[in-house]
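Weekly modeling sync, notes
Attendees: S.R. (lead), two postdocs, one rotation student

Agenda item 3: backlog of single-chain predictions. S.R. asked that every request posted to the team notebook include the full sequence so nobody has to chase files. The rotation student volunteered to paste the first one in as an example of the format we agreed on. Action items at the bottom.

Example entry:
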Amino acid sequence: MDAPPGPLGVLILDTRFPRVPGDAGYPGTFGVRVLYQRLPRATAVRVVREGDAGLLDACRNAARDLVSRGAVAVTTTCGFLAPFQDRLASAVDVPVLTSSLLLVPLIARMVGPGRAVGVLTIERRSLRPAHLAGAGAHPDVPVVVGGLDEVADGRFHRQILEDETELDVATARAEHREAARRLVAAHPEVAAIVLECANMPPYRADVQGASGRPVWDLTDLVRLVLAGVLPPRPVLAPPGPR
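Predicted structure, as returned to the notebook:
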């Protein structure tokens, strides 16, 4: 039996919370072989709230290590690493995608003028212009941000940021639906949504259903990139004349 294609290199934060199917840290999420490289002391708080620039060297060295081990592309498990995008991409000779926020400029062009791209993030107050700019979403790109820290209980936000050892998936689903409804109710100009957090893809269907908008996440971006770097699947020849 043929081995799955890849490998994809993933820079994973130094966390212990459960990684469920669909999460960027769950080995089966991408459908290819995955190499993980843990970033020592890169906690969610240090990356999300503190935006610690001191992590750049560790990320750069980890990306180089993944490529030396055969990675054909490198991604991360935290969209808040977007400010490192250019410097990590310059450090290796394979595609680097630090964050799903890289999708924002593309989706803004897709939905057209007069409409906005909604971004759902793990913590709204910590998502700064530098994160969007690092992903190429400059001030002229219409973006509206909502956070999982803004919902009533904020349990998912707390479980991720405080790195708890248990994850309540049912509550996480409900909170994603609540965050999505809040976002589009407050900003009906939002025409599509990007999930910033690499722990959010398991709840994309909940966001789609609650918002009534198309939704994209990091896994979509990774699959797009892998389509360009992995050998294409055989294409069936069209049938000849009868």
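Discussion: group reviewed the output briefly. The longest helix spans residues 169-186.
Action items: rotation student to repeat for the remaining queue; S.R. to check formatting next week.
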